[in-house]
Amino acid sequence: LVLHGPNLNLLGTRRPELYGTATLAAIDESLVQRAQRAGVRVVCFQSNHEGALIDRIHAARGNFDAILINAGAYSHTSLALRDALESVAIPAIEVHLTNVHAREPLRRHSMLAEVCIGVVAGFGARSYTLALDAAMAHLAESRP
Ligand code: DQA
Fold this sequence. Notes:
By secondary structure, the chain is α/β, with parallel strands linked by helices. A five-stranded parallel β-sheet has the order 2-1-3-4-5, sandwiched between helices. 42% of the residues lie in helices and 13% in strands. The longest helix is centred in the last third of the chain and has 17 residues, at 126-142. The chain binds 1,3,4-trihydroxy-5-OXO-cyclohexanecarboxylic acid. 1,3,4-trihydroxy-5-OXO-cyclohexanecarboxylic acid (DQA) is lined by residues 7, 70, 72-73, 75, 96-98, 100, 107.
């Protein structure tokens, strides 16, 4: 399950010098294709609403083996998203297009990182494909 948080629906036109020119639809399509080649199903969902993201995390229990989440600004603020990820106990990877550690200090702290198996940040749209590869490798290694 790939979750995108607030403002990521604007990718392509939102500060392209920072976030790149790829649209969210293009990113989702490349993830679906890449996963398909590996025999894995990917479902993508974007919302600007914290509760909608939390509902998707809850519904993922029993339906998805891993979560990739770019929670946008909620990454830095949302205790509720962190609790949701912790509650479902599905391996999750935090994703950011930008290197949040090289930006404003307020972006350096993540509410989610501690309940994720890893973080990928700073590689633009490639952050998502790197995270997908990491999730697939993690699952392959953790299966008996
Ligand atoms: C972001 C980084 C966040 O700090 C920011 O609020 C975003 C995008 C990224 O992908 O680089 O919305 O998550």
